[in-house]
Amino acid sequence: MTLEQSFPGLRNSPGGAVVAVADNLFDLTGPADAMTAEVLQNQTRQLSAQIKAIDPAWHYDEIVPTDALGNRIETIQGLTAKVNDLRFQRAAVTARVRGDYGSLQVETLRFVQRNADTAYDQGVALLKAGRLTPKLSDQEALGNFVDRQVRRSLRERYN
What backbone torsions phi and psi does residue 72 show, to the nearest 5 degrees? Predict the structure, then answer.
């Protein structure tokens, strides 16, 4: 077993290895994570209520993992993704029911920026691994990769 397996997050810890080990032993970030999760859960309830007010027939389909006792397993990343999805759904319902596309434009821009950031990171890794073949330059290959990924994800999102 390596040190990283014993202490998850060691590699990506902004404070370094000492802080990561201390956090795992003494749960330094636990209260902040719990508060963040609570805020995100409140946002999901508010967004769901706002969408229901616009379209009473709307319902949110989701599959949530559970532990052996049937309790929901919710992570901050999962809750953040849910909030982002609900914001996009609120914008789509507003556009469909009220004909107001302003919020859909805002959510589309947020979605595109998040996906562009993710695709850029993936593209840099692929470029370093030699899996992107540049025709003119590395920047051109990276830009083409990001464009393809963002267009694909936006098409999927709108579908």
Answer: -65, 140
